[in-house]
# Entry
Amino acid sequence: MHKQIEEEQTRIPKATPYQFTTTDYPVVPPKPQPKQCTKPEPFRLESVARHEEEEVRKDMEERKRLKEEEARMRMFKAQPILKE
# Structure
């Protein structure tokens, strides 16, 4: 029975323990200094830029049309009404 227990123990592999070096604990590197926060920069979408360009163009065309109409109104001269 003693021999049988020894045979069972020899069949079960045993892990070798960790051999400590000069230090018992692993060396942990120091934490890096925290970096400064970045400032968010607004980005411009192409579609938004195109839309704004169209709005500016339409506004300029409207102003031009109003100026031409105003100039035409200044050129207007009233004609007298002839009564018989």
